[in-house]
């Protein structure tokens, strides 16, 4: 049996239609939701991500401000820009594209963003709020995955969930969100023994590693929901240069019940939830101002 494919592009289009209505409603009240994106250095992948984010903003009625800095820019320059954006009432979300050049202290830069404008949800205050089950901004990728699971009515309560990867931006927040929905969550990482033992138990398997096709069909429980967060460029074979996920789609789709493709799966939803967080920030700001 072949798995149902969870089309991230289609879901993203539906969600973005709703977001565009929210942007319109804000505009009608005199507020243009705005996202500031800071890019430092010439990493080509980062440049593509930023371009996609900016394009998505424009289409949804969110104003985007893009600040490009050369690789050798001093950290103080970027911190000064963040302080300026924090103080600007017309800016609702601020995003610093990662990774930053080596001479930057990424934690320090992320902590400099006002927690009320931290639409990536990486500020320690927002990470803490999420851990306490009182999220202010949910990190975009796990947020997008939750929306995907919801769109397919995938049962979460009591489900065995295995997440491969424990990064601050994907694996850990993913685990917190699923735990909040009463799933039984296991997190695997590079030091986990017998990865397949864990993945084969999973009703829901989330792969967020960054290793091309490492999860194969024989590591998946029949009928499982498989969410592939990984984005890798294939180095050899007939598809060299093309993108692929952490899951070997060809073998996995014969075993899984539901599966996300790469590209066209989690990626479009990540950007969509960035827009959602920016609109949320703008709506909160308006509500606070109306309150006085
Ligand atoms: P990180 O490199 O920060 O984390 C990777 C995780 O995978 C680490 O926890 C690491 O373990 C674990 N890992 C590495 N090797 C193995 C292994 N052999 N077995 C089990 N676990 C392993 O990556 P990110 O979380 O930032 O990103 C993961 C992937 O998701 C990447 O491909 C990235 O491009 C993609 N991504 C996609 C997004 C989207 O929108 N679709 C958004 C963000 C990321 P340890 O902690 O022990 O080192």
Can you give me a brief rundown of this structure?
The chain is of the alpha/beta class.
Walk me through the structure.
The chain has 2 domains: 30-114, Rossmann fold; 140-267, Rossmann fold. It starts with a strand and ends with a helix. It has helices at 8-28, 44-60, 75-87, 106-112, 124-131, 140-151, 171-180, 195-199, 249-252, 266-291, and strands at 4-5, 34-40, 63-69, 93-96, 160-164, 184-188, 204-207, 225-228, 232-233, 243-244, 258-259. Strands 1-11-8-7-5-6 form a 6-stranded parallel beta sheet. A 3-stranded parallel beta sheet has the order 3-2-4, sandwiched between helices. The model has no long low-confidence stretch (mean pLDDT 97). The relative contact order is 0.16. Helix content is 42%, strand content 15%. The longest helix has 26 residues, at 266-291. The protein has 292 residues and is α/β, with parallel strands linked by helices. The chain is built from 10 helices and 11 strands. The structure holds NADPH dihydro-nicotinamide-adenine-dinucleotide phosphate. NADPH dihydro-nicotinamide-adenine-dinucleotide phosphate binds at residues 141, 164-167, 169-171, 188-192, 195, 208-211, 229-232, 266-267, 270.
Radius of gyration: 19 Å
Percent strand equals 15-25%
CATH domain fold name of the largest domain: Rossmann fold
Q: Give the helices and strands as they follow along the chain.
A: EHEHEHEHHHEHEHEEEEHEH
The total beta strand count reads 11
